[in-house]
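Tokens for chain A. Residues wanted.
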């Protein structure tokens, strides 16, 4: 796991290999930078309004810039840390349900995926997805024992809507999953 984490943290200010990642990364960085330096959230064209499209990511960038100064490392580091935490939670979920060999194998397959690796090295909001989604699944796995875990699962799953508007498929899938689970639990209580 240390090698995986270091691969994300090694030269965080290096240029990304894909310009497609930078297209989405830059508006959020410019937005938070302008708020820190000039005191206003800039208004962009109709296709990309960072405070509407990715509000939580912009607030994280703004807080990072406010605390540590404006720079590329300060911009990317919080997102890299979210990505690393998401990988750790993913490992814990798989390890809890299987064994260490399978958990390490799945972690290596997941962490070395091209998209996941480059998302983790950027300031894309997908890194927050990669943290919140496993976190909500983790709390869901605790739900049979603890009733409060369903609330936390729903809360962290719903936070994805504040990360990026494109997260609605995950939230919809989470709601369908809860519906199926609740029907199953009610049937178990009736027959049990």
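Reply:
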């Amino acid at each position: 796991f240390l090698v995986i984490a270091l691969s994300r943290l090694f030269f965080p200010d290096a240029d990304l290999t894909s310009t497609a990642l930078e297209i989405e990364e830059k508006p959020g960085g410019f937005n938070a930078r302008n708020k820190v330096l000039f005191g206003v959230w800039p208004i962009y064209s109709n296709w990309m309004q960072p405070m509407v499209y990715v509000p939580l990511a912009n607030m994280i960038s703004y807080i990072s810039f406010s605390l540590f100064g404006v720079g590329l490392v300060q911009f990317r580091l919080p997102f890299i840390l979210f990505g690393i935490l998401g990988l750790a939670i993913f490992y814990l979920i798989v390890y809890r349900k299987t064994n260490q060999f399978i958990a390490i194998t799945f972690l290596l397959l997941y962490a070395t995926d091209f998209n996941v690796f480059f998302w983790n090295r950027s300031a894309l909001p997908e890194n927050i997805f990669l943290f919140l989604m496993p976190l909500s699944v983790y709390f869901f796995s605790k739900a049979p024992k603890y009733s409060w875990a369903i609330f936390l699962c729903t809360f962290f799953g719903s936070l994805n809507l504040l990360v990026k508007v494109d997260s609605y498929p995950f939230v919809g899938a989470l709601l369908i999953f809860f519906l199926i689970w609740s029907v199953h639990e009610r049937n178990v209580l009736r027959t049990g």
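The CA atoms of residues 47 and 190 lie 51 Å apart. The two ends are 42 Å apart (CA to CA).
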